[in-house]
Amino acid sequence: QVQLVESGGGLVQSGGSLRLSCAASGRYTMGWFRQAPGKEREFVAGISSGIGWTSYADSVRGRFTVSRDNAKNTAYLQMNSLKPEDTAVYYCAASLWSGNSPHDYRYWGQGTQVTVSS
Asked: Cα separation of 92 and 43, whole Å?
């Protein structure tokens, strides 16, 4: 059973920064998703287990950076220039292959709340 443990959410003012972490029990492609109240879960960013694939949603490209430390089996989401519309529960997810859809990911973290105040 793959375990994912997220950390790093919180409350920040508009324009601020947060970094989310996701520790996995193995090495997988890691995706970050978010879900705001009343909205569907949406892809934010993803990174493959090896060199070659990263992907970003248009809404976060240039502001968010996905990275990983394979020695620690940990993925990170650095979020800069945060906006109120970034407010959501953020989830990390693990997959054996790369993809931008929630259906591509079988294993999910517990989610962490990110709230950006205006």
From this structure: 10
Residues 6+ away with beta carbon under 8 Å from 23:
4, 5, 7, 72, 73, 74
Q: Are 109 and 93 in contact (CB under 8 A)?
A: yes
The alpha-carbon radius of gyration of the chain (Å, integer) is 13
Beta bridge partners of 68: 75
Length of the chain: 118
Instruction: Per-residue pLDDT tens, the chain, 118 aa: give them.
Output: 889 999 999 999 999 999 999 999 999 999 999 999 999 999 999 999 987 899 999 999 999 999 999 999 999 999 999 999 999 999 999 999 999 999 999 999 999 999 999 9
